[in-house]
């Protein structure tokens, strides 16, 4: 008998390496250039690259005389393309320990704050799709910004798809831990190189150094 009836994973930083910061910033600059803004302020580039809220997007777009939805569409398209290019070039890789997921019982999923299309690309590109029964990323819309973790919107959908009553969510950020607990799931926080010294204000159910530790937790 297994301890958990489903295991759901974050994607970036858990299954595959996270995007390089400069790649993210470069994608935002490309989006601005597409819309005729050659030298956007550094804080506008930074704020659009990570965890931007709709009100901040509105303010940045208004500053440049742009429609917020138009700016966001360009941002999403350039960001998506930059990620595809990084994977194809080999500058972002799948983690070796992802193979341990095959040792877990069936009923597995992926929930990411990244675009749904980018999650689909990664699962296909690294031939990971057979490992999972469902996956969710966010839509490439302004509205999706309010649905990102720690909101449980996409995690709830995955748990429902898996018909799970006692799921485990595996992530590499504080928002992953918060989302898991809000959704009624236990959490496993992965201490990879980029999170080795991360200080959390919430306590995950487990901390692991590698996905190879999960079979001992789940089974």
Percent helix, as a range, is 25-40%
- Class of secondary structure makeup: alpha/beta
Number of separate domains: 2
Using only CA atoms, what is the Rg? 18 Å
**Coarse morphology:** globular
Q: Given the structure, what is the number of helices?
A: 8
Under CATH at level 1, the class of the largest domain stands as: Alpha Beta
Q: Summarize the helix and strand pattern as letters.
A: EHHHHEHEHEHEEH
Low-confidence region ranges: none
What is the spatial order of strands in the main beta sheet?
A: 3-2-1-4-5-6
Q: How many runs of DSSP E, i.e. beta strands?
A: 6
- At CATH level 3, the topology of the largest domain is Rossmann fold
Distance between the termini: 7 Å
Examine the secondary-structure arrangement and name the CATH architecture of the largest domain: 3-Layer(aba) Sandwich
Q: What share of the residues does DSSP label as strand, in percent?
A: 5-15%
Largest sheet: 6 strands, parallel
* CATH-defined superfamily of the largest domain: HAD superfamily/HAD-like
Overall pLDDT level: 97
GO biological process, one term: DNA repair
Organism: Halogeometricum rufum
InterPro entries: HAD-like_hydrolase_sf (IPR050155), HAD-like_sf (IPR036412), HAD-SF_hydro_IA (IPR006439), HAD_sf (IPR023214)
GO molecular function, one term: phosphoglycolate phosphatase activity
């Amino acid at each position: 008998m297994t301890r958990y009836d489903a295991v759901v994973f974050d994607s970036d930083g858990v299954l595959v390496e996270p995007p390089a910061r400069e790649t993210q910033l470069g994608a935002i600059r490309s989006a601005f250039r597409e819309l005729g803004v050659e030298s956007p302020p550094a804080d506008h580039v930074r704020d659009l690259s990570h965890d931007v809220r709709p009100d901040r997007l509105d303010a940045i777009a208004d500053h440049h005389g742009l429609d917020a939805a138009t700016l966001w569409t360009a941002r999403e398209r350039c960001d998506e393309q930059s990620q595809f290019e990084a994977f194809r070039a080999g500058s972002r890789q799948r983690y070796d320990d992802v193979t341990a997921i095959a040792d877990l019982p069936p009923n597995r999923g992926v929930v990411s704050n990244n675009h749904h299309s980018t999650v689909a690309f990664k699962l296909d590109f690294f031939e990971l799709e057979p490992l999972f029964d469902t996956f969710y990323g966010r839509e490439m819309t302004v509205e999706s910004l309010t649905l990102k973790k720690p909101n449980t919107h996409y995690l709830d959908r995955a748990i429902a798809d898996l018909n799970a009553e006692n799921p485990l969510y595996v992530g590499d950020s504080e928002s992953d831990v918060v989302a898991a607990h809000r959704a009624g799931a236990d959490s496993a926080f992965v201490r990879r190189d980029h999170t080795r010294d991360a200080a959390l204000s919430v306590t995950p159910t487990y901390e692991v150094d590698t996905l190879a530790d999960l079979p001992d937790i789940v089974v």
